[in-house]
């Protein structure tokens, strides 16, 4: 198990310029790389990128695909959290989704949305029951002090994609108790491709404090190998 680095580098910066440039452009076996423009309309569109623009919850954009929604549904059911913290609010559809699911499951749960720019949040005032919005910047962890003393069990989701491992260490040191969850959405496959050595080293630094929950860490592409439980 590695030594904890003084300060984790922000792996979110390593999308294509990683410390370990193992990425090569994919070779397309079943179609030409250069598609003729006079057949533009017939071009296949099944390469598998997630079309997030399609997903919404009660009219608000929700950047979680159906597999991920199903996985969170099951996690809410199992964990019965009293607090869900999500870093990254954007339209706020995800906060409303978590609040509505918690209500359907009769959970006594508050949903806390954190963003450095809440200006894009579109949750109407009439829909704010059970939801708290707070401004904070993942790059400045002193702004996270407001998050201490939240009720447990706690589900903490990083969907802001900034300074993730220092945020993770802050939550492990200051917030999470045994059984609580820390989720890294979306990013692990990128880091595994672009900076695999740092990724392994940084995850290894949490070997004594977190484990990966193999039920949810295999449940959807967005959660791929990114669901951790406080030991
Ligand atoms: C992917 S969106 C969140 C989507 C939302 N969680 C959902 O599922 O619908 C990312 C958000 O992170 C916020 N963000 C980016 N950098 C941040 C930082 N350093 N601190 C806090 N929030 C940040 C952006 O303002 C943006 O609203």
TrEMBL record:
UniProt-listed GO biological process terms: methylation
InterPro entries recorded: RNMT_CmcI, SAM-dependent_MTases_sf
Keywords for the protein's UniProt record, in alphabetical order: Methyltransferase, Transferase
Single GO MF descriptor: methyltransferase activity
Residues annotated as transmembrane: none
Protein name, UniProt field: CmcI family methyltransferase
Organism (species): Saccharothrix lopnurensis
